Amino acid sequence: MATETKLPVTKPSTAPAGEAWRPFQALRHEIDQIFDDFGNGFWNRPFRSLARIERDLNKSFSAPAVDVAESDKAYEITAELPGLDEKNIDVKLTDGGLTIRGEKKEETEEKKKDYYVSERRYGSFERYFALPDGVNTDKIEATFKNGVLKVVLPKTEEAQKPAKKIDVRAT
Length: 171
Prior knowledge:
Layout: H1 22-39, H2 45-62, E1 66-70, E2 74-80, E3 89-94, E4 97-111, E5 116-130, E6 141-145, E7 148-154, H3 157-160
Antiparallel strand pairs: 1-2, 2-7, 3-4, 4-5, 6-7
């Protein structure tokens, strides 16, 4: 019969002594980075950040997201282009593909008694889509409504035919 003991049983730690402090290393690195930044032009950083943000906004505008869907009768490309008018969008069929281009120019000016603000933003984008075989290029249509461009690429009669199943026979 085993005897009961009141002494706690502990196992010796197999982890190296420094392991316990690993969670704090990331925090220490961040704090060190703050102090390094403070000494290296910390106060000028907001101006660089504003320029970087504006560059990033223009980059994000340069490649709008699109949805491409296929149905039995057509392919459909949908692109969200907020802030654009149909006159700023160009859709062309070139080199066996479809090119969608757009340009946005925005200027604002505000004059008050004690200040004047003038801002200009420019951005352009271009997307190219290689056309699959079986698109009837004479009947492609593009519509633009509420900031959404929709391009319908109808399939030819031959491309609309259902796939023919071919039986495989053992020989």
